Every structure is written in C-alpha cells, then in structure tokens.
Amino acid sequence: MDQSIIRIIDKARGGALLDRAEIIALLSVENLSPEAFAIQQAGRAFTSELNDGYAEIHSHIGLDASPCPCDCAFCSFAVSAGVFRRKTELPLERILDEASTFDAAGVNALYLVTTARYDQEQFLDVVAAVRGVLTRDIPIVANVADFDLAYARELKAAGVAGAYHVMRLGEGTYTRCDRDARIATIEAAKEAGLVVGNCIEPIGPEHTPDELADLILLARSLEVGFSGAMRRNTIPNTAFSKYGNISYGRLATYAGSIALATGPSIRGNCTHEPSQLCAQAGANIIWAERGTSPRDVEAETLRGYSVEQCRDLYAECDWKVWDGPSRYYA
C-alpha cells in the first residue's frame, strides 16, 4: 500500500482541506488497486460520518426535448447530435402527475429540468403549479439554462429552493456556453438565496486527474451545497464516441476521492446514474428520473431509476434514507 495515499486519506478524514497535488494523487491511483479501494472505503466513512449515516433520493422531471442551441457534445439534446429534431414539451398535467407521484413516494427534493429553449416565464408558471400539488415541503430545484440575478430572485420568489448548475468538463470547448456566464449564474443563484447543487461531470475515460481537480477546487471555492461524480453516458455519433464510458468501478474511486477532497463543509456527495459501487464509495445522493433526460436518446427516458429502485440500491449498501425535505437545500 502506498503510504503517501494513506497520509492524504488520513489528512482528509481529519477534516483538513487537501491541496491540488493531493487531490490529483487520489484521482491518479491505479484502478482496482489497494489504494483505490482504500479511497472508496474512506469516502464512504467520511460521507457517512458527515451525514449521520443517511442518504437522500432526489427526483428529476425532464420538461422538454429540444434541439438545444447550447450544443453540448455530451448531450442528446445538442443540435449537432441530431437526436431530437423538433421541440416537444411535457404537458402541465403530466408534469403535475409526475410531481405528485414523486411526492407520494417520499423523495427528498424535486428537480425540474429543461433545455436552454424552455421559456423562463413558463418555467415560473410550472414551478407555481408544482408547488400547489405537493403535500410535503420538499425543495424544488431548477436545472435550467444560465440566468441573471433578477431571474434568480424570481425563482426564489416562486418557491424554488435551489439550482443545479455546474461548470462542466470541456465547458466552452465542447459546449457553446460561456464559462464566465456559468460562474455568474452560480453567483447570482447564491446571492438570491438559492442553494447550488454541483457535480464533477460528465466524466469520460479521456479526462485527466488535473481536469477533475480543477473542478473540485472550483466547487469548493464556490461553497456549493453538495458535489460528487457523474459519468458521461456517451451519445452515439458524437465527438466522444471514440472514448466511450468510464466504468462504474473507476467512477467509484472518483466518488470517494471527491468526497474526501471537497472537505467537511460540503457534506453531500452525489453520483449519477445510480450505482451500488458509487454508493458504497460514499455517494449519498442519487436521482430517480421521469420525463426527458440528456443521457437518453428516447423522449421518455428508459434509463431512469424509480424511487423504489433507489431505496433498494441504498438498502443493499447499508445506507439509511433520510425521511423529509433534503438537508442540502435547507
């Protein structure tokens, strides 16, 4: 066993923040090595201690499937992907039905997810309607295109508790999004009182430990509500087809590393898509999905887990599931 890795793990477990070189060292260990499994075990122990052994189930309702002008090369909605050639939207009645179903199933948070083509005012109307059918005080989270401070305040006034918004790997190179605008949106959300959910994503086999470390440090500096590790589900006939996907075994080591590297102030550690290996390595936030998904080439996602499947996954990994509103969007 590499004792330098053990020392880094012990430093993180003790509550100290890791520096960039230490984070890179964790992310660079050989797959399936003793060091990799040590990181996974430490990530699980660390996240579990920070959260009293509880995990959360968050939910995703994709509201539209459109050829999106952001043209993110890893996304099925990208104009260049040619998967979705016309704009389609879930009817409000269907959105409310899905929201009610998730509410009854006991999810801890509800995400409303759109492409960049979804109208901002329409989204506010949907938020109000969804809030009206929920029987529990679960947070609504906006996963939408970049926005300014004025709109962030409108989201907050409409009853939105948080925003999922990240600087993605390859931002500005493999997307048409402006890197400064991504950061400005996160800062606007925080200024308006919205908690920001984060993840290091979408990870492919070509991404280096240096690239991942940069985004981990960015998440830490932005004081996000949670972070984690999400793998790319490579869409056919895109710029990433030649790379494919990383394994969930490798992602589990990243999940453990990110849990340790984000430190004790960022308690939550998410992963997507749901994976027992990542849950065992410290990922305590996973999503159930309905509607559209940027990782699916079908307008109705066939990849998404149900809430019950998420519960079963956590049970197999000996996590308790939190009962009530998410603690990360409080």
Automatic annotation (TrEMBL):
Domain spans labelled Radical SAM core: 49-269
Domain of life: Bacteria
Keyword entries, A-Z: Iron, Iron-sulfur, Metal-binding, S-adenosyl-L-methionine
Record-linked InterPro entries: Aldolase_TIM (IPR013785), rSAM (IPR007197), rSAM_sf (IPR058240)
Matches recorded under Gene3D superfamilies: Aldolase class I
Residue ranges the record marks as coiled coil: none
Pfam families in alphabetical order: Radical_SAM
Keyword Metal-binding among UniProt keywords: yes
CDD domains for the chain: Radical_SAM
Protein name: Radical SAM core domain-containing protein
Organism name: Adlercreutzia faecimuris
UniProt lineage: Bacteria, Bacillati, Actinomycetota, Coriobacteriia, Eggerthellales
